Amino acid sequence: MNQAVTYFIQSSAVMLIGYLIYTFVYQKEGYFSFNRVYLLATLVAAIFLPLIPINIDKLFGSIPAMATVQYPMKTVNEILLSEVTIFADGNRINALTSIHWVSWISLIYLLGLLVGILKLALRLIRLARVITMSEKQQHSGLTFVIMPYESPIFSFFHYVFISREVLNSPNASQQIIEHEQQHALQLHSLDMLFAEMVTVVFWFNPFSFLLKSNMRENHEFMADDAVLMLHPDAGYYRMLLINYSSIVENQLLTHNFSYSLLKRRLFMMKNVKNPVRMVAKLLWIFIGSALALVACSDAAKQVTLPENVVKIDTPETPQLPEDSVNLFFGFNMNERKADFIARLGKEQSCKLEIFNKKNELLATLFDTRMGSGDYKTDWYITPGIDYFSYVFTAGDKRMTGNNYSDPAKDYNTKEEAYTVVDSMPEYPGGMNAMMSFLSSNITYPQQAKNDTISGRVFINFIIEKDGSVTNVNVLRGIGSGCDEEAVRVISSMPKWKPGMQNGEAVRVSYNIPIKFALN
Fold first, then answer.
1. What whole-number distance in Å separates Cα of residue 110 and Cα of residue 403?
2. Which of 34, 349, 387, 440 could be stapled to 357 by a disulfide with Cβ–Cβ 3.0 to 4.6 Å?
3. Cβ neighbours around 84 below 10 Å, total
């Protein structure tokens, strides 16, 4: 969902940039073919540019590689189970059955998309029915569809919809036919069909509709210009437009000979082209392109990192998926120093916090935005601290590490607890059964109610080789009895089916958030 939101925001930014430059720079110029290409390019760029990975830094040179860590590292990516919510009034829900607000946004967008698709399909069907059921005449490579008296004149590809009275009028028909013929020869309907599909996808974005309107208007300018090249009597042609103008709204996919912006069309016929001025204005193409690249680039590349965080740009770093988030840690035995490397697949807000065994915050190593790549930081273990935990948050993902007593002594002696194995542990009856067990047995502590305490308790536990639940630790708590209640119920879970790695039972570490909500 975050990727989709980012895509639509960046696409909207490209449309906004393109629309503003067109409105204030190119719209009043008489170079209509250039304007056509510009408007089409803006829509194409808005669709595809956000999909291209753009690193502004690499356009101007890369950052020199930094030294890498030379001592053992361990990945922190414990499995985070679905959240269980405990309400003070006794109601209980879990993340498997709740509907996130993101789902509502997605549903609203999909409904809007469906409505747009249906409306577009109905217009095409209505247009096809008019063509099928109406009288038709062939003339100058065009198919004239005879419409009722005083119907607006419009075209769609090689079909021209026109009343019999106008078609038989010797004073009007020739230039009207030539006008619509220009729409057909220049494939203007193809442009409009593309623009219409863009507005269906970007139905929430007003700039997609404004660009479509600009495109339709420019098509009329192009057709008018072509007719005046054949018939230089501009005064007669302007009178023809006025006499046959119509205020009746026509099909959105068609070109109307009596376009509603008649005044602007008449103005553009008198407009004198200025090549020197137009060449100077081409500079705005490069300005707009630069702004679009910045809008679609990884903005975090421009953010100054804290002094204790260093970006590691090494040739062996793999190309990361956008949803990739990882944290590596290791211990410097001589300096009693914990080192962390955050690996990210995309730009996002990140925070790394250290807590003691009372779940009191000892240090926040960083709280900033970071781009895709590896970032290193370290923490010197305070004298007297023999037990600590850490919580790494990246966007909407959270990773936590086990609690360690004197890591310099215990790191090599503890049997490793895996995070991902060939066959993951299984709760009896599946994850839905586990969520039901927790939500049914955890009780909101009365002390927490009295103290109006709410929030999330993060618990880490290990499924042993025999399936038993051990090492239940509070990674981050909220107090007032909530931490103890969460530990009590998780410790009482029945035995799981143990995890298997290479055919052998192994220890597997899990994390789970328990949310206590007063309302």
1. 44
2. 387
3. 26
Q: Where are the alpha helices (DSSP H) in 60-141?
A: 101-133
302 secondary structure, DSSP code: G
Lookup: tokens for 333: 């035995």
pLDDT in tens, 49-77: 988 877 665 554 443 333 333 333 444 44
Measured between alpha carbons, how far apart are the two ends of the chain, in Å?
27
CB atoms within 10 A of CB 253: 19
- Residues 6+ away with beta carbon under 8 Å from 325: 343, 344, 345, 394, 395, 397, 399
Neighbours of 415 (CB within 10 A): 7
Torsion of CA 43, 48, 50, 52, to 10 degrees: -150
* Region class of 146: left (phi > 0), else alpha (psi between -120 and 50), else beta: beta
> In this structure, are residues 347 and 359 in contact, taking their beta carbons and an 8 Å threshold?
no
What are the residues whose beta carbons fall under 8 Å from the beta carbon of 435, sequence distance 6 or more? 82, 84, 94, 95, 96
- How deeply is 438 buried, as exposed, middle or buried, from its count of CB atoms within 10 A (0-12, 13-18, 19+)? buried
Residues 198-252: pLDDT tens digits?
Answer: 999 999 999 999 999 999 989 888 888 888 888 777 777 777 676 665 533 444 4
Decide: 369 and 347 in contact? Cβ < 8 Å: yes
Amino acid identity at 354? I
β-partners of residue 132 are none
Residues 6+ apart with CB under 8 A from 417: 402, 462, 471, 507, 508, 509
Judge residue 304's burial from the number of C-beta atoms within 10 Å of its C-beta, 0-12 exposed, 13-18 middle, 19 or more buried.
exposed
d(CA 170, CA 152): 18
Write 158-165 long-range contacts (CB < 8 A, 24+).
Answer: 158/184, 159/131, 160/184, 161/130, 161/254
Percent helix / strand / coil, the chain, rounded to 5: 40, 25, 35
Number of Cβ within a 10 Å radius of residue 23: 13
User: What is the four-CA torsion angle of 97, 98, 99, 100, rounded to 10 degrees?
Assistant: -130
Over the stretch 385-435, which tens digit does the pLDDT of each residue have? 777 778 888 887 877 765 554 544 444 445 677 777 778 888 998 888 888
Q: Which of 285, 243, 279 is nearest to 262 (CA)?
A: 243
Token look-up 């590292």 returns: 73
Residue type, 274: N
- pLDDT (tens digit per residue) in 459-477: 888 989 899 998 888 877 7
| 139 close to 177: Cβ distance less than 8 angstroms | yes
- Tell me the three state secondary structure of residue 175: helix
